[in-house]
Design a protein that fits this description.
Blueprint lengths: L1 H54 L6 H60 L2
Length: 123
């Protein structure tokens, strides 16, 4: 009997510790979520005010201005990617041309050396 009472007491303590931990966890996580929501909400309010005051065109809503700016940014990024790709292709072509010229010069030098040897030997 004594052992079962100890087991029961231990289980009650464990349940109490676990429930206390759960309450603390919920409080901490809930507090963090409230702080996060406040910070993010405040940021969005400030961003909307800025867009509304400085970036909207006449008769344009804040949401329309954001959509327009997102489309403009996407267009700029696509142009930049295309320029990067074009530059990379030019760089590769230039490198290949340089390799070909170097190879042609090396072949010319080697063949000229062989001709010189033949001429020197009278062959």
């Amino acid at each position: 009997m004594a052992k079962s009472k100890l087991v029961e007491a231990n289980e009650k303590i464990a349940e109490g510790v676990v429930s206390s931990y759960k309450k603390m966890e919920e409080g901490v996580v809930g507090g963090y979520k409230k702080i996060e929501e406040s910070a993010v909400g405040g940021f969005h309010k400030i961003a909307d005010k800025f867009v509304g005051n400085f970036l909207t065109k006449e008769g344009e809503s804040v949401e329309e201005a954001k959509e327009r700016m997102a489309a403009e940014q996407k267009e700029r990024e696509e142009k930049s990617a295309a320029k990067r790709e074009e530059h990379e292709q030019k760089r590769k072509a230039s490198a290949e041309e340089g390799r070909q010229k170097a190879e042609a010069a090396r072949v010319k030098k080697v063949s000229g050396t062989e001709d010189g040897r033949k001429a020197g030997l009278g062959l």
